[in-house]
Structure formats: C-alpha cells, structure tokens
Amino acid sequence: QKSKAFKEIGEYAFGFITSTVILHGSSAGSEELNCVYVPSNHLYIGDMFLISSNDIVRPNLSVREGIEVVNSGGMSVPRMLTTLDECVN
C-alpha cells in the first residue's frame, strides 16, 4: 500500500558538542565527526551521537542558555533562534 504519511523524515534536538573524532575506513576515507551529547529528562542522562559537521545547526546560544533550555523542557527557548553561521556573515 502506498502512503504519503510520514513522507518527510527529520528532526532537531538540542545537544552539546563534547569533542570530535576521526572515523577511519568509511566509504569516503577518513571523516571528522562531532560527539554530540543529547540529554534526556535529567541533564546527566542522555545519548551520545557521532554527527557530521554538515548536519549540525549551531544556534547562537551560550552553554548556560542551552542548559536552561534542556532543564526547562523547552520552555525557555527564545521565540526566535539564529545560527552562529548567520552571526558570522
């Protein structure tokens, strides 16, 4: 059965870049990946993801503001977010 439900797949999550690693032996040779910690309901519990820099959106938030967003369950997210890329240009 063909369905158009869930045609677009994707999501965003607030996380913290903790370090970078080099992945050897990938199809493209070596690739630099970011270790991104995405907390769950408590700041010290969460998941670690290896994500390419091209797939990361860097909001113009301080670490403190990011922690406030996570601790508040998203209630302290600014109504308008800008990315660091927009601030540099």
UniProtKB/TrEMBL annotation:
InterPro entries in the record: COV1-like (IPR007462)
GO cellular component: Golgi apparatus
Protein known as: Uncharacterized protein
Lineage, uppermost ranks: Eukaryota, Viridiplantae, Streptophyta, Embryophyta, Tracheophyta
